Structure formats: C-alpha cells, structure tokens
Fold this protein.
Amino acid sequence: MAEFYSLKVADIYKETEDTSVVTFDIPQDLQNTFKFRQGQHLTLKEEINGEDIRRSYSLCSSPIENQWKVAVKQIPGGKFSTYINQKLQAGNQIEVMAPTGNFGVEVQPKASKNYLFFAAGSGITPVLSMIKAHLKAEPNSTCKLFYVNKTAKSIIFKEELEQLRNTYFGRLEIYYFLTKERRDIELFNGRFDDVKMKVLTNTFIDIPDTSEVFLCGPEAMVNYVSEYLIGAGLSKDLIHYELFVTGLSEEDIKRAERLAQQNVEGIEVTIVDGGKEFAFTMTKEYDNILDAALNAGADLPFACKGGVCSTCKCEVKEGEVEMKINYALDDKEVSQNLVLSCQAVPTTEKVVVDFDV
Ligand code: FES
C-alpha cells in the first residue's frame, strides 16, 4: 500500500541560499513506522495546482539523533522544490511515506572500517547521515569525505561537517572541491579528473585499507570515480552509489524507445500488494506496469517515475518484464528478479509482480 502519513513540519530553515532543511515531527505512535537506516529517503507528496506531485529526499539526520530531516535544493522550474523552498512553513502538515531505500550499510559497533564518501552538492544528504551514524556507533571506524560544490557559500552542511570534524577529531577528514571559485591549492579547484584522482589515490586514499565507498551525485561523477577506483584496485563490491540523473545514455534511450514500441495490449498482470491480489489487463495507453496498474485503480507506492528512487520496486514472481531505465537497483537486486514497476514493460502474456518486498 502506498501509505502516506500527514506529518507536521517542526522546523524549516535555509541551509544555503537555495536549500531548505525540513524537520518533521513524528508522533509517538508513528516512531516505529518511521524507523530508518542512514542513507534511506522519505517520499513527500503535495497537491500543487491540482496535481499530485511526489518527490523522494534522502534523510540527512542519522537514526541515532532520533530526528527526521531532509534537505531540499531548489531546482529552477522544479514544482516540488519551489513549493518547499518558497511556501512550506513550520506548523504546516505534509504527506510523507515511511522511509525506504537500500543505500548504506548496517552499523557494526565493533567494526574498524575505513569509509570513503564522494558527494556533489545536495548529494551530501545521505552521506551526512551515514557519516554521523558510523562515527557515533563505530568508535574504531574512520570516514573521509571528498565533497564538490560550486562555491564556498553553496556548500550544504558546511558548519555541521566542521563540527563533526572537531567532535571526531582524527576520525573524519573532509576535502572540499569548488568548481566556480578558485583557491590557492590547485588540487581543490574543479571536478574529479585523472590528475586529481591520481593525487587522491596516491596520498589521501589507501585502496587496500578501504572498507566501503559511497558516492552520491550526478551520474557522470559517480561513474567516473567508481571506474577510477576499480582501476586503482578497489573491489566493485565495496562501491555503493546513488545517482542524480541529468541525461540518458545512448544505450538507455535506445532500449527505452524499443520497449515503448512493444505491444503490451492484452497482457494479464496480477499485482500482489499487502497480501492481496489485484488483476488487470494491459491496454496500449500505458507500457509500464505501474502506470497501467494505477490507471486500473491499484494504490501502489511511487515517487519519481523515472527509474531513480526505487519506491515502486517489486519482485517478478511469474512471467518476464524488461526495464526501460534502471538507476536504482544494483546487479544483485536485478538477479533476485526485482524490478522498478514504473519502468517495467511486460514481455510475456502473463505477469505476476509482488510489491511486498
Ligand atoms: S517511482 Fe522512482 S523508480 Fe519508480
């Protein structure tokens, strides 16, 4: 069930000129439902000009703080981010879905791990949650953050990061990179490239001693840094990422176009959700399972409808589907028959998908 809860905004403030941080008040009876792991996100819903709009935002607070906070950066022309940044006020109610998402790993109090984080702009939000959780709960672990922003003024959570660096002196290293402001040390000017990565992997990063790497930012940055680290000897299994998608690759465009031509009319789809079954027949108006099911009256969870957030994830129990775009599920999840229903085009005459995953 796509269950939303009406939550009160306890606080909202401007972290930078174009980013607001929203704190939700979670009533006692919902605290269990809203329990989360660092790296997870909340899906928010609001009717804006008569349109049901949903967006997912990573929690920037850590579970240990017992606070539920998200940071929302204003996107030019973005309906939801404009609403949050310009209209939402403390005391308002807003519809919020319980936390979801797989980004992040469990904290292990006895672990002595060395975590690396690469973030760009608002990609800091899940990363901040993880840094706080691992430093607090794992006294023998260390964190290194490589963080790209346009200017010094636009660095989101700079003050909180500096406080963390002081609190966990020697266990948290932070390196800021600026793309639209020049500083004396050339290494810290501009985006990650071969020159910078070579210096980082020769001086600041000890590849054999790295336990996990988390990347959050634009697809180009995430792919580039991942590939560089793998090339430098890091195991692919240790790399975890969350993307901002800014454009589709040639391959994605071709696959999405091919699947859009697929004839889905007449395909029988059965949805299992909340232990109940809902069956309908695909028509040619919608090629993906999520839109077709919503149109047929199902109440299913979704947010981005762009293959990025994984809110619409389900498991294929019978039949086959192909995804147009997948920026959310990793290879392991795909091998477990998980698919993003907003991108899933049925390719067999009968398909059964289970949302209770
Ligand atoms: S709704 Fe976000 S991936 Fe499907």
Q: What stands out?
A: The two ends are 12 Å apart (CA to CA). The mean pLDDT is 94. The chain has three domains: 4-97, 114-244, 257-354. Residues 302-305, 307-312, 328, 340, 342 surround FE2/S2 (inorganic) cluster (CB under 6 Å).
